[in-house]
Specification:
Helices cover 40% and strands 19% of the residues. It is globular. By secondary structure, it is of the alpha/beta class. Bound molecules: adenosine-5'-diphosphate (ADP), aspartic acid and magnesium ion. Adenosine-5'-diphosphate binds next to loops.
Length: 468
């Protein structure tokens, strides 16, 4: 059971989590928590301040956050438990101050020390949550996630090592067998030498999936602030509806292309062990959520959801040398490889290749290397829109329907058929909201198109599912 930042934002939210875990107690749950909402951003901002020469201001800016943890402890814990959390908060505050000074003096130390600092968010929330659960008569035991999840040294976005399955099981299984509820921070991990790493922003979902897979859990539950995966991002389409069932592949495509509700890496561990993933609303635990399983039925009009990703950059490389030549694409992708830049969508013609990238930090060095291969055009502030639905590749008329709805909006880089469940294209960021809302209206808001399955799926179960 993974609880996101807004599920542990304040004392009321912690209380609420305790009630949800209590209802699941007989299912032998493992609890994973994010940092309290906003704290990770604040920790990262303090590192920026240190790098910009003001470590003291960085440390100062975190005071209100440490105080917030203390206030939650004050409201929810009895004296002895409170004192031990207060000691942990004090230790974290001192340690973060010390690390910020080092980063300020030696900015090259930033990657590992930033992870060490950011980890404080999950270290404190998980200790606090374990204490709150104990206060509510639950047999919770705090476990340091860094001893469970082992990764490589890619600070900021580390990759778990194969031995993680064994280390996580070894750490967590005895507690579960002893009737305890392990509580660990998501997102944080460590290298085999014990140096703290993190799994990338939003990575607590991934932690839950890794732990669920390592322990052959019956279900991986992602408790968040919306009632499941919705037909579109609710910040763009307020009319978004809960999708009752998604296939792994549909969920993965939605997550890759911007549905923030699931970290994109969450699905793979679930697929490896065929474990269902359920997305539930911690603010409305009896609402129907979304169940993600190996197979799901097609929606009546095939399209199940629309995901989108803003702030995308497209790069087009044109060269007559590409015509009938081999080795060109290899050379092109090697440039992206060399500059450690991930490519999301690719379309090609005989003489040109268009690609999209999310992270443009390496662009100034990338472009001169690409210019050795051909002429290069870059466009920023683009949005990828991704229409997802099982059966999309083999259903006639989908593309016609999608593009006729947005016939007056300029569309580029159409990609369909690479996966059987998605149709992806680019629009200008300024037109994205309009395009997504029009598509949503046609796909989900007319009476014929209601994509709901008849199955009612409740998040809070009579007999909750958890580690088997
Ligand atoms: P948590 O802190 O629980 O991990 P996140 O903020 O990471 O929560 O993810 C939940 C948010 O994802 C929602 O509040 C919503 O704004 C956003 N979101 C984007 N696309 C979707 C979608 N298709 N379905 C549900 N939520 C979405
Ligand atoms: N706290 C981390 C973040 O904000 C991880 C997570 O919430 O999943 O990115
Ligand atoms: Mg998240």
């Amino acid at each position: 059971m993974k609880f996101g930042g807004t599920s542990v934002a304040d004392a009321g939210a912690f209380r609420n989590v305790a009630a949800i875990v209590k209802a699941a107690e007989t299912g032998r749950p493992i609890v994973v928590t994010s940092a309290i909402a906003g704290f990770t951003n604040a920790l990262l901002a303090s590192v920026d301040a240190a790098v910009n020469g003001d470590a003291a201001a960085g440390a100062q800016s975190l005071n209100e956050w440490f105080d917030r943890h203390a206030a939650i402890a004050y409201e929810l814990l009895g004296r002895p438990a409170r004192q031990s959390i207060e000691a942990a908060i004090l230790e974290a505050r001192t340690e973060v101050g010390r690390l910020l000074k080092i980063i300020g003096g030696y900015p090259v130390t930033r990657p590992p020390l930033q992870d060490e600092i950011v980890a404080v968010g999950e270290l404190l929330s998980s200790q606090l949550l374990a204490a709150v659960l104990r206060e509510n008569d639950l047999p919770a035991r705090y476990v340091d996630a860094r001893e469970c999840i082992k990764t490589n040294e890619d600070y900021g976005s580390a990759t778990p090592l194969p031995e993680t399955n064994a280390t996580a099981a070894e750490k967590l299984q005895p507690a579960i067998e002893g009737g305890e509820i392990p509580v660990l921070g998501g997102f944080i991990a460590s290298t085999s030498k014990g140096i703290t790493t993190t799994l990338g922003r939003g990575g607590s979902d991934y932690t839950a999936a890794i732990v669920g897979a390592a322990l052959d859990a019956r279900e991986i539950q992602i408790w968040t602030d919306v009632s499941g995966v919705l037909t579109a991002d609710p910040r763009v389409v307020p009319e978004g509806q809960t999708i009752p069932v998604l296939s792994y592949q549909e969920a993965a495509e939605l997550a890759y292309f911007g549905a923030k509700v699931l970290h994109p890496k969450t699905i793979q561990p679930a697929i490896d062990k065929s474990i269902p993933v359920r997305v539930c609303n911690s603010h409305a635990p009896t609402d129907a959520g979304t169940l993600i399983v190996a197979e799901s039925e097609s929606a009546p009009l095939t399209i199940k959801a629309i995901a989108h990703k803003n702030g995308v950059t497209t790069v087009q490389v044109t060269s007559a040398r590409m015509l009938g030549a081999y080795g060109f694409l290899r050379a092109l992708f090697e440039v992206f490889d060399r500059h450690r830049t991930a490519v999301d969508v690719v379309t090609t013609s005989e003489v040109s290749v268009s690609l999209t990238i999310d992270d443009k930090i390496a662009l100034p060095e990338l472009i001169p290397d690409l210019e050795k291969l051909g002429s290069v055009e870059v466009e920023e502030d683009r949005t990828i829109i991704c229409v997802v639905g099982e059966g999309l590749r083999n259903t006639p008329g989908i593309a016609a329907r999608v593009f006729s709805v947005i016939h007056d909006i300029n569309v580029s880089m159409i990609s369909v058929g690479a996966s059987s469940v998605n149709l992806t294209f680019m629009v200008d960021e300024a037109q994205a909201t309009d395009a997504i809302n029009r598509l949503h209206k046609v796909c989900f808001e007319s009476s014929v198109s209601n994509a709901s399955d008849s199955t009612e799926l409740k998040c809070s179960q009579e007999e909750p599912l958890a580690a088997a």
